[in-house]
Structure formats: C-alpha cells, structure tokens
Description:
The complex is a heterodimer.
Chain A: H1 15-35, H2 41-62, E1 68-72, H3 74-77, E2 87-93, H4 99-114, E3 119-125, H5 137-143, E4 147-151, H6 153-165, H7 167-188, H8 207-219, H9 229-253, H10 262-271, H11 279-308, E5 318-320, E6 324-327, E7 330-333, H12 336-339, H13 344-356, H14 362-371, H15 377-380, H16 384-393, H17 400-409, H18 412-416, H19 418-421, H20 437-451, H21 457-468, H22 473-481, H23 492-507, H24 511-522, H25 526-533, H26 539-549, H27 552-567, H28 576-595, H29 606-614, H30 622-629, H31 635-639, H32 642-652, E8 660-667, E9 670-678, H33 683-693, E10 697-705, E11 710-718, H34 723-726, H35 730-743, H36 748-757, E12 770-774, E13 782-789, H37 794-804, E14 807-817, E15 820-829, H38 836-850
Parallel strand pairs in A: 2-3
Antiparallel strand pairs in A: 1-2, 1-4, 5-6, 6-7, 8-9, 9-11, 10-11, 10-14, 12-13, 13-15, 14-15
Helix pairs in contact in A: 1-2, 1-9, 2-4, 5-7, 7-8, 8-11, 9-11, 10-11, 17-20, 20-22, 20-27, 21-27, 22-24, 23-24, 25-28, 26-28, 27-28, 33-35, 33-36, 33-37, 37-38
Chain B: E1 2-8, H1 13-22, E2 29-35, E3 42-46, E4 49-53, E5 56-65, H2 70-81, E6 89-95
Amino acid sequence: MPLHTMPDGSPGPDLRSRAAALLAAAREEYATDARRGAAGASVLARYSARVDDIVRAIVGEARSVRPLVVCALGGYGRRALSLHSDIDLLIAFDGSIGHDEERVVKLILQPLWDLRLTVGQHVRELTDFDAPETDNAEFLLALLDARAVAGDESLLAGVLMRVQRAAAEWKPALLDSLLALVEQRYDQFNHTLYQLEPDIKNAPGGLRDLAVSRHIRVLQPRLFGDETERSARQLQDAEEFLMRLRSILHLESGRDANTLTHEMQEKVADLVGATGSRPQLRVEAMMGDYFRHARVIARTLARARQLVLPPVGRGAPRPVGRHYEVSASGVRFLDPVKAASRPSQWLEIFRVALANGCAVSEQALSCIEHNIDRYGADDFVPTDQDRHLLRKMLRPRPGLYARLSEMHDCGLLNRVFPEFAAIHCRMVRDFYHKYTVDEHSLLAVHAIESLWNADSSSRKRFGAILHEVHAPDLLTLALLFHDVGKWREGDHAQESLRMAQTMFDRLGIEGEPRQMVEFLIRHHLRMSQVAFRRDAEDPQVIGWFADLVGTEEQLKMLCLVTLADVAAVSPETLTPWKEELLWRLYVDTYNRLTLGYADELVQKDQAGLETVLEARPDDISEAELLRFLNGLPRRYLALFGVAAIYRHVRLARDLRRDEVHAVLEKHEEVWELAVVTFDKPSLFSNVCGVLSYFGMDIHRGQAMTTPEGLVLDVFEFTDDEGFLRKNPGAAADIHAMLSGVVAGSVDVPTLLRGKERSMVYRRRHRVAPVLHFDNEHSRKYTVLEIVADDGPGLLHRISRIISGHGCAVDLVLIATEGKKAVDVLHVTKEGRKLLESDQAALIRDLQTMLEDRHETH
Amino acid sequence: MKLIKSIIRPNKVDEVREALEKLSIAGMTVTDVRGHGRQKGHTAVYRGKEYEVTLLPKVEIEVVVPDAVVEEAIQAIIAAARTGEIGDGRVFVLPVEYGYNIRTGERDMI
C-alpha cells in the first residue's frame, strides 16, 4: 500500500499521521491473524512489507542530497518482523557524513520514534566498510541479512562488495564470535531447551538458533550438503510454529515479549488450537508441540556447530568395530540399512560415542528415530550381557548427559525405559522448577557427571564422594527414575518406586543394587529436608537421619542424589549456602555412622529384628537367631541382607573355643570371606595377616565383636596374585591357615617376615597419612580413624601395632577408595578408652610405620 | 515505621514466618546468609582431618512494620526462633523514613 494514500485510498493530512494510520492498519491486519493463532511466516513477511512502505515514504520525505541507502537488518532484513520487534536499520551514505546528512538521519528516525517503534540504527559512510568492524560481531552478523528498503539499492551492493573483499579477514573471527555468542546465550538457559517457561526467541531451540544456523551456513557454505526434503520441511514447520507463538505473545503483552510464561500458556494453547478436554491438557499438548519443534531447531544448530568446529584431533572417518565409524559429525552406522533392523546395535553406538568422547551422528539418530516404533524395551537388551552393558553405560562420566539427551531426543530412552516415557515433557508447575520433569531428571545426571572433574573446592569434596562409591551407575538409574511418579498427582516417590519395579525385573537388577536404587528413590527428598529445614545441629536429628541411611555407602549415594536433584531444579537453586548445609549434614552423619555406631546394638532396631525373624528359614530357630544377634552392633542389620545374616547364623552354629568357621565366596571379581570365631588377643591382626600372606588385597570389611566374645569378620578382597584362581585347593589352604592361627599353631609375624621385606610391601607413600583419635563419639570406645595410602598388608600392620600396645580391637570398618585406605577402628585398653598418653604412644608408632621408615616386626 | 532484621537458624524460617503472619505481617524478605556471632563456628573432623567451620549458614528475615507492632513482632520472632542454645541468632531494629510501592508509585502509609 503506497504511503500517500490511507487504507481507504484517501490522501492523509501529513506524513506522521499517514504513517501512524498505516502502521495501525498493518498491526490490526497482523493482530487479526495472531488472534486466530495463524500469524506465521507469511504474516510476518506481509507486516515487514508494510513497515518497508512506511520506511520508504519517510526516507523519500527526508530528501537527502547525498545518495544514501536504508537497509533492513536482522529479523527485519529476513522479513520476519514480529508485531513488536525492533526495527534494525542501516543508513549508509555515499560520501562523508556532515551536518546535512545528520539532519537527514534525524528526519528519518524521528517519525519512526514518533510511531513508538523501537529502532536500532547504524549510520555509516560507504568507505567505513573498507575496514569491516571485526570487533562488532553483532553488526557484521546483522549485515548478513541486509536488504535495501529505500534509497539507492546499488549502494547496498557497494557495501556488500567492500565487506566481501575483506571476508578472509573477518569471516573466521565472525564465526568464532557467533559460536561464542551461542555459548553465552545457552549458559543463561543451562544449555537445555526443556524450560517450563521458555524464551521462544533466545532459549536453545528458539528462533535465534534458527538464525544462527543460517548464518553458519552462509559463512561456511561448502561444509553443508543439500538438506533433505524431510529435514527442510521439519525446520520450516518449527519456524512457522514458533512465529505463531511469538505473534500471540507480542499481541497479548503489547511489547517485544518472548517468554512463554505459565500465565500465557493457557491463552496460547487455546489460540493455536491445542486439543484436550481441560486447560492443563491443552497446555501440555501445546508445550509438547513446542518442545518437538524446538528440538528440531536445536539439533539443526548443533549439527551446524559440529560441522564448523569438529572436535580437535578428529580427521578422516575411522572405523570402530565392525558396525561403526567415528567421523566429524559423530559416530555413524557403517550400514544404516542393516542397523535399522538391529536394535541391539543402537545402544552400542551410544557406548561407542561415550568411549570416544564424541556425539552420535545425525545419520544414526535419524535411523533410530525412524525405526523406533518397531521395537520394545526387551529388544534393546536381549541378553544378560546387553543388560550388563547398559548398566555399565550409565556410569557417570563426561558426555553421559549429552548421550542420554540424544537417546531421549530420538526416542530411544523412552523405549529402553518405557517408565520414563510417562514424564515425557511433563510440566509440573511450582515455585522452583524451571524444566520439564524428564529434563530435570537428565540434568540431575548432568550434575553428577560434572562432579567427575569438579573445579570449585566446594564441589570437589562432593566429587571425592563420587569417586568413592562402589556402584556409581546406580546413581544414574536412581536419578532417571526418582521422579517418574510425577506423571500423576500424589506421593511421587512412592509411585516412582512402584514404577521402578518393572525396570528392575526387566534388567535383572536384584539384591544389593536393587535395594540401593529403591532406597535412593524412596528417600530422595529426605536429605534436603533434613539439611535445609531441620536443625541439623541437633544430635537427635543426626541420629534419626543416620538410622535412616544405615550405612556410609547409602549416605554417600543419597548425598550425591540430593545434590544432583537440587542442582537440576534451576541454575540458581543449589547455592553455596545450601551446599554447605548439605555437606555439614553429610559429615555429621558420616561421623555418627562410623564413630558412634558401636554404641547401639541390634536390639534397638526392633523393626529390623522383626524382619529378620519373620523371614527365618526352618533350620534356624528363633532362639538360635537371637543368640547370634545378641550384642552385635545395630548397623549389622543394615549392612547385610537377611540371606547373608542366615548364612552367618549357620556359620556360628556349634562353634567351639579355638575353632574358626569360615566361608569363602566369589561375587563377580570380588571375593568375600566371612569368619566366625571367639575373640583372643591379636585375632583381627592375624586374620588380616593370613589374607595378606596369600596376596589378597582387602577392599572392604567389617569386624565385629559381641560382649560374649563372638567375633564376626567379613572381608571383601581381590585375589591380585591369582592364588585362588590358580590353585584348586586354595580355599582349603586359607581355611587351614586360619584354623592354625586361631589354635595358636601358626605365628603370623613369622609367616609374613619375608613378604614385608619385599619392595612391593614397602613402597613409598604418596600422601601423608592422617591419624585421628576420637574419645567423644562413642561411650565405650576410643575411635581411631586412619586415612593412608593403601598397600599390601596395611591392615595387618596397623592392627599388629595396636595389639602390640595392649589394645583390643573390637570393631573395625574397612574401606578402600581407589588407592586410599580409610579404616575406622574401635579400640579399648584394659576395657576402657585410651588415655592421652596411650594415644600419643600409639600414634607415634603408627605414624612411623605408615611413613614406611620402620621394620614392623 | 521500623525495619526488623533477624538473623536466625535456617530451620526456624517457617516458624518465624508463621509467627509474623499471625500478626498480619505478610511481606518479608528472606535471604540465605552466612556469618557468625559469639558462636564463632567450631572445629569439625572429617576422616581424621580437622577443619574450621567459621561462617555458619543462617537466614536473614527482613520485615518493615509500623511502630505500634514493633515490640510484638520482635517478641514473636524471638519466641519462634529460640532454641536456648548458642547460635540462635540476633534481631536488629532500624528506623525507616518512608517506602514506596514500585508498581503504583504510592508512598507507604504505614
């Protein structure tokens, strides 16, 4: 519509009123479509053309003497102007800018400002472009979309020619800046598109991503092949949908608002015709569409970024195994046609990507996505080996979140874990959460993964816990399932636990791993409640929490799940303040569990006792069971399952003085030795010495003594020298040696003398040992904590020194974390706690031994 | 009009908030803070290693109340936040000249 006429064709009174009328008419035209939820690309293009008319008329009225061109930049340049978008303009003069030109600029801008348009203007001389502004990336990027609106169009060609001439100078820098801007922008959104209130322009998967993808393509056209018709259509649909949403947001807010807030979602859902009987269902349907489209856009940009910045050190494609190759675009199927009908390869490609530190390629993701509906959960893990590998894949490490997200985006995660599909794009509104439930769960995995290489000291301490836990893959499993119960209202932890049962059965997860994941899901809210909302300085609160977690391993796992769960709520939720509260609760509970556990006996855990009594097999009488348990520490019931407890009861049956009953079992790579006997001086030291003599490396263990003198020691160790593997009679040899030790016919120090002189035995320490006595936490015992480099026979040497000082070792917790031994020994001397003088003498000898300056015999 | 600034134990926030709401004091600012008073932190031991816990996590609650209810509000805060142990916190009272409502631009009448 020409400017010199009004919408009804009559001439207007003056430029400003005519421009205002035209803008009002253009906006009303736009609003009519937006109210129908139909203001997509064509409407934006039409509105851009209307604004072109206004700009053109204003420029004409300004009557510049010097030739000039007025160009539309950015979104306006792309003819994608939304109702209240900024009008970005370049005004370029052919010659120097003097007083007259400044007047012209004012004559152009003032009417636009009077129209209350937000104008972003760049005023330049043509020769300015001889040296493009390489430090002004945003301006250079805007130029990529420049088109002439008014004035001398040939001048724009001059601008672009000049800019192009120096392209070799600014293009690489511009690409770097563009990628850096993306990174900065993504940081604001925690790098995820699954926002509960997404900014549909700036968030990952938003309209700006689309523009960036196009810019990358313009800057590096040779790297891009032809788009498939399908992906071009998907992208077009995504852009159309987001433009329609944005139009509604602009219309409803009356400004350049791009956040799809909770308040706006119902309105937008109705206007775009989302289906559902209730508003909430319509919102979920609309947001489901939004996430689907945003995923298409985000993946397009990710692919473009991957092409221009392939990971360092990756050149030509190289095959990995028989079915895959690692290329610049990620891991690909060598034969995608065959791969389409081999779902067991699909998980493997993600394992290969994790192992190689790269992404899964678009080729493979598309192949999986197109064929996903043909297969069910069991098809991906048909064998025990596949199920084992799936668990192994879930071990937290760099790249896990990214790979799980790819699995999620292509539909594989929901197939492998159908229970997870229940929370697909699930929106639960509250004051805290920023992401959909599924994305929150994945971000929790990311939070755990980032502890692997934590940089801040406050996070490093949690990272240390991650390196200590025995089955970190169970953390991922627990985090994936901790909120699946949020698919419905009510107690989601209970519902999540119920839903996890089918997954356990399907993946054959039984015994301790199953109990651990169940524990984590059931109690995933507990630790934050205690840390943030209870008086964690109250010993009773700590006592209650210690009873709940039961063991250090469960405490560590729950602490990590809690940290990850809180961190994944929003970037602001896990403050240093909360981290500190969580850490203090962890430390206090850890100390309670390890230092004070001896004071409470099983009799205090009535519920635990009842469970053990109820499931009692026929061959064990209630009296025999209670006799065995009498006097054992309370944590015994938490540490061992009922089957193990009954094994111990049988082991203790008919035990006589000077006898030892022992059973040796292998669990995967680890051996477990349970020993029952009656206490005598240096017994613990000697049992450790026997294991050391046979080359066993003790990793974990518990040593307990009842007031009646019954000793139960359980050791987990690895057979590093292969003694058990190579010798069929090895178990009998160990048993015979233990019997000799208990009967007093074998002298362990003599036995070990040769070994202790060897270099391996006496290797240098790497870190200074830490020894600490505690006379406060336990009523009856002095607790000695030792953290030192692990080494052959360490426990035997420590306990021998303690025995040598006339001290009795009544209870021991043995843990090995990597190359570090963490031992907690509850000791007494002549039935009392150690005096300061006893401690000083003992610490001196232990220190000397641990620093390896001393013959220990 | 007074600004009452209370530094309390983190687990006492809900109780203090409820106590203030009973006095019809609904508007408040709650901030996570760290610091120490006479409590001055303590030594903690983790795995045999001692470390100083000097700045303790606390919560700061700020409310602006009319002069007439200042005393009542202070007593309510103290009653709700007290455990009787060292580290219960502090209450400070500061004069406020006037306040404005940002949305309406109106000057507060309290």
